[in-house]
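User: quick one - fold this with magnesium ion bound?
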Amino acid sequence: MTLRIGQGWDRHRLVPGRPCILGGVDFPGCPVGPLGHSDGDAVCHAVTDAVLGAVGGGDIGRLFPDTDPRWEGADSVDLLVRAWAPVRGQGFRVVNLDVTVICEQPAIAPRAAAMAARLAEALETETGRINIKATRGEGLGPEGRGECVTAQAVVLLEKP
Ligand code: MG
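Assistant: Sure. Structure tokens for the protein plus magnesium ion:
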């Protein structure tokens, strides 16, 4: 059996008037949303980089450059699905995925289960293998000032 671990990190500025989508889940009441060439979903981007890192697959920017108009406004769950397909094709499956989201808003906890369900579907695994944690910046740094959302992800993959 082969085990591979990968980690991912992403940060997007939070601005008024942008749809707020994180982990593929919509937060319709949130007054700010992540700015990005795609939908700015920092959670999906961190998870994508973790998966790519685990298999030595480079990074999300190499696969989906922000200079390419094809990915403008892209659904980042779709980007994750596209990145996952060849990894699954190599015979890997998810052992577990652990995600930390750092932001002042939106409140992540009420939708953490929905996020895990979206990510589980994208990665063709069960929600029980995915953990979503959230914390706040306590007034410190750009997260604490509410300027951005940061996401960290660690994934363990196995190939029987
Ligand atoms: Mg990003």
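One thing worth noting: The mean pLDDT is 97.
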